[in-house]
């Protein structure tokens, strides 16, 4: 287990380093001039050159990358080209909002996927199981932003139960916080839950064909009880992999949902930075998202050993 942990940590660090090179290189080769964009088309070449020197854009690319990497290792994502303020505090403030939204959406997705997937598998040859499976397949085709708009029309415009947009921090009261969180979390979580339920159904169907499940049923155990007692833990191994992928995908989907519901998360900050052509802030935001995705994959990989005892080997 210790060797597995060290090996995965080494792969994590190597992947994060390679990702930092890719992120920096892709943004460095983008066409256009940041200083020219900030000063406008009427700016003189001398003014553009002076601003480039002030921002450090006249230095060689490798030197700029090493400075940026060194700053990140110390928690410094650089200084915004537009506001002149440190990037890290603003990024982490918006990241807190996105994490709350993504975690809430993941809870919704799991609460939907597990019962729907198990029920669709348990009732696979009956009309209700087929109906549940068909509805989940239909929900997969619905875009997240469309689900958000439909929920706004139903719960905000028609019924008037929930606010259509905005955000309220938990310190401002649990009631306003939950009312502003519910619709964005449902918009993200319901679609991902439908996707995840398909994998739960496939995993459960595969487990029910195993010898140990047939042995449990031959001893008089009911199929559903045998599935809950012996099958679900084994079925969760492939589902766990997909859950990690879904959790990473939620960060990408949150960018659109935050725009629809005017949520001040890291996605809305990224869009604003792109519009302002604040490349140093875009680099920092993208790198933070990449590290979060890598951490999710690392945690999922380590959880395999917790769920599957066969992986707890000393080698």
From TrEMBL:
GO-annotated molecular function: dipeptide transmembrane transporter activity
Alphabetically ordered keywords of this record: Cell membrane, Membrane, Transmembrane, Transmembrane helix, Transport
DNA damage recorded as keyword: no
PROSITE patterns: ABC_TM1
Taxonomic superkingdom: Bacteria
A Pfam family recorded for this sequence: BPD_transp_1_N
Compartments, record wording: Cell membrane
Domain ABC transmembrane type-1: 95-304
Transmembrane domains' residue ranges: 12-30, 99-122, 134-161, 181-200, 235-262, 282-307
Gene Ontology cellular-component annotations: plasma membrane
Main location: membrane
Membrane-topology annotation of the record: Multi-pass membrane protein
Family: Belongs to the binding-protein-dependent transport system permease family.
PANTHER family in the cross-refs: DIPEPTIDE TRANSPORT SYSTEM PERMEASE PROTEIN DPPB-RELATED
The protein, known as: ABC transporter permease
Native organism: Microlunatus elymi
Organism lineage: Bacteria, Bacillati, Actinomycetota, Actinomycetes, Propionibacteriales
